[in-house]
Records
---
Amino acid sequence: MFNHIKTLSDIILEEERKAKTASGSFTILMMQIQDAAKIIASHVRCSGLVDILGKTGNKNAYDEEVQKLDEYSNDLLVKILLESGQVFAIASEELPDIIYTPKSNAGNYIVFFDPLDGSSNIDSNSPIGTIFSIYHRNSNILQKGENQVAAGYILYGPSTVFIYASKYSINGFTLDPAIGSFLLSSPNLKMPEKGNIYSLNEGNYELYDEPIKRYLTHLKTSKTYKARYIGAMVADIHRTLLRGGIFLYPADAKNKEGKLRLLLEVNPMSFIVEKAGGMAVSNGKNPLSIEPTSISQRVPIAIGSKENVKEFLKIIHE
Ligand code: AHG
Ligand code: MN
Ligand code: MN
């Protein structure tokens, strides 16, 4: 029998059929995000050439002036989303304020995004990503993470991978550059219950409070853990999703609230990890239950395999 590999578009359409009242609006929005991801992925591939082309005052393959990748990714997502007709408001890590779609073209969704996560990795040709989080339109733009309709990330690594989580499922897709489609590569993602990798910026050790130091001593003396830290949350979470373990960005003496942003980084990743059977905590609470106060609000985070996060909680509360 003819065997067709499912694509991200197939899954989005299948889920639209499951939603009885669906109008097609969410499908259009996800198709637009998918297009943006492909364009950013193509630019990421050429990012090593930016300086060379920049010096010559050249334009790139799209006949655009060469621009920094994080600015470019932000501008592209802003434009695509505002013109999609499906969006009421957007908020980006690169912008200080919420942007509202003009009334004539406004839709029913709110999208938060981190257009280029791990941007300090660009110069060393290391992994980077894009994170997005979708909510229904509400008079209150800043909503609890548990209200998310869907969330996902795109990891620009050796392959471009798209992780998409909705209330129905979580699946992973790999971009086939030959046909320009995201092909289903990790159906019904389920993360390991426990892993042996921990991931945090240990350069901050002296700034951590006692419970975090105690937890780190536990990890190191247990002789079962390996350390891995890429410095791009998308890449560190992706490894945690596939191989299990724990990722942390705790509060410290310098970053008193932690570093990662609740609405742009922590909540989409917590939604994704929960859908895959994992767990996230922030100050002893599920971050998805935190009432947000601003777009740039930061919170501490421990996230990963259930058993690892439970072990973290046990040790910091001893
Ligand atoms: P961004 O590039 O979007 O500003 O995010 C960087 C974030 C996150 O991706 C990563 O986990 C963390 O910052 C790394 O921070 P440190 O350099 O402090 O370890
Ligand atoms: Mn980021
Ligand atoms: Mn960013």
Note: Residues 197-316 form a domain with the D-Maltodextrin-Binding Protein; domain 2 fold (CATH 3.40.190.80).
---
Amino acid sequence: MDVRVFKNAEEIGKAAAEIYAELLVKKPNAVLGLATGATPVPTYKNLIKMYEDGSISFKDVVTFNLDEYCGIDKNDKNSYYTFMHENLFSHVDIKEENINFLDGNAADYEAESRRYAEAIKAAGGIDLQLLGVGTNGHIAFNEPADEFTDEAFRVTLTQSTIDSNQKYFGDIPMPRYAMTMGIGSIMRSKKILLIATGEKKADAIKKMISGEVTPRVPCSILNNHADTIIMLDEAAAGLIK
Ligand code: F6R
């Protein structure tokens, strides 16, 4: 793991966007794995700036998002589909047909998981997967568990994730389930970029950096990936030496 520490979230946003830009210049039809949540917002802002100044285009890019809530419409203001359009897709020249999401309302979750796996394979695999991390060490919505997962599946969100994300839903109780890419699907990405900011992430980061690989700390699996960059701000790196 290539661990890099930055002053703050803004600096990570610039550096993470640079990694994406380098790839898009080399491979304009790259397959990007994308994440939602607060952490990647500065990265997306910088990517929009780079698109606006003409240094990158998303015209031939294909994207796969990590996860989507179950039980809310994809056009709901809190869906990850809406989040991605508001924070990136509506501001760049990506084609709607190149945007891929898991369907949180699929009638058959196993068939939906197979569909997503086949779509990723047909696109040639994910070139660069962006990840945030939960305070409990989750990546995508792979919560601490007894075993690592493989392909996408329907997950019951843990109380820790509900406590972190309820704020986005205001008074409406947030969904208890989501469809998420599995650990295997994430690990098959050619390159992974995990970004983490704030002291709430410091414990999960410390456990990941310790090198012990355990499904109780899902992000620790990244120790087994050959090409992973970890970008931390000083607060998220606060417990590592
Ligand atoms: C989002 C996702 C989650 C988040 C994580 C951190 O697509 O898969 O794993 O990356 O919950 O969220 P924030 O960035 O809001 O702290």
Note: Residues 2-233 form a domain with the Rossmann fold fold (CATH 3.40.50.1360).
